[in-house]
Amino acid sequence: MSDLLLRAPSASNVAARVRLRAATTAHRVSLDVDSSIDAVTAAAIQSLWRTVGQPGTGARVSVGRSDIANSSVVAAFEARAWADLVLSSFARETNLLIPSTRFLIAGTGHVADALAAAIIRFGGRIQLTADEPVGLLDIAIRHAAPSHRITESPFIPADVDVVVATGVGHPELTPDAVAAGVRPLLVVDAGTHATFHPDSVTAAWAVRGLGHFEGPRPIVVVPRVETDALHHTTAEIRAAYAVLLATVGAQHADIALAEVLQP
């Protein structure tokens, strides 16, 4: 698990704590991993389950992707892990310093919140924008950040250096969304699906993997982080939740996982 922005117990400590919590009831159930779960997470679940003890032949419990997605603890952890991956990629690809960079975070939800917290922690200046006013206000209040609701285009002002698009709570990012300016605008796609749509602009050139596009101001697109990276980063936490779900039950699994993740 990455250590840049995310602070959590090591994978070995998490596994040890889960084994302790699950050992008393593991013999009563058999855990099945549904095919909807990605291969990396499935392998982590099976590996952890084998260390819990000697699982019995009792009630069969099947855990699928939707079961893990229902965990608010896993969702919060994944959002912070994803923010870590996105900002690590941004720093690696651009060599820009976060404290001297002005960011616009487009969107709402866990990822937008995690990105705001991480950028502020490293001294960056942020603005927030979204078309969903309640979620926008919630993040703005939490981080004391200036915000504006998207009601028309362009909604990306000329004074920002980087726009980070989360894919939730904002329109598609097209050149029409960008206010005219001279300075280049860096676009960071922080969504788990593509949120920047370059089809309507002409690719001019590519340098070091950065896509350069024509628009109201020069647009440079940072390569997207592959979602496989998130699977590798969070597989142990998902596995911990799956084992707890099977052994302590849905009503207690989130509480147990939160306790396990305490430093």
Under the CATH scheme, the architecture of the largest domain is 3-Layer(aba) Sandwich
The oligomeric state of the chains shown is single chain
CATH superfamily of the largest domain: NAD(P)-binding Rossmann-like Domain
Helix content: 40-55%
What does the overall shape look like? Answer: elongated
Please give the domain count: 2
Strand tally is 10
| Low-confidence region ranges | 1-5, 196-210
Q: For the record, what CATH class of the largest domain applies?
A: Alpha Beta
Rg, Å, rounded: 21 Å
Helix-strand pattern = HEHEHHEHEHEEEEEEHH
Distance between the termini: 14 Å
Written overview of the protein:
This protein has 263 residues and is of the alpha/beta class. It has 8 helices and 10 strands. It folds into 2 domains: 11-70 and 231-261, no CATH class; 95-222, Rossmann fold (3-Layer(aba) Sandwich), CATH 3.40.50. The strands form 2 sheets. An 8-stranded mixed beta sheet has the order 5-4-3-6-7-10-9-8. A two-stranded parallel ribbon has the order 1-2. The radius of gyration is 21 Å and the shape is elongated. Residues 1-5 and 196-210 have low confidence and may be disordered.
Summary tags:
Rossmann fold, 2 domains, eight-stranded mixed beta sheet, two-stranded parallel ribbon, elongated, 42% helix, alpha/beta, 8 helices, 263 residues
Q: Can I get a quick summary?
A:
This protein is α/β, with parallel strands linked by helices.
